[in-house]
Amino acid sequence: xxxxxxxxxxxxxxxxxxxxxxxxxxxxxxxxxxxxxxxxxxxxxxxxxxxxxxxxxxxxxxxxxxxxxxxxxxxxxxxxxxxxxxxxxxxxxxxxxxxxxxxxxxxxxxxxxxxxxxxxxxxxxxxx
Length: 128
What we know:
The protein is an alpha/beta fold. It has 5 helices and 5 strands. The chain has one domain: Rossmann fold (3-Layer(aba) Sandwich). It has a 5-stranded parallel β-sheet with strand order 2-1-3-4-5, sandwiched between helices.
């Protein structure tokens, strides 16, 4: 992918956060991280305008779908992708209602690269 992105990565599992961050940084993306939904909201409220927010679905406190809904209130066009192994139609449908992409875990280097190659560009265009 030639277009490098500024990504806010949100996951409450430290190992997963490090793993995905490493995969993204190997491709020269700029990555900021948050371990909670609350921390992610604070980062966005302080002015970070990422090309993509990549967030886990299941987190304590503010879960992924609630985080998307809150981001949408103040940043309706910010590109967001929900990452989860939970592929229930209801959850995927809710993510889409919130205008968020859905990415299935487990994330591999190839799967993440393929997603970013198309999705970041599509999400950026949709946000304009």
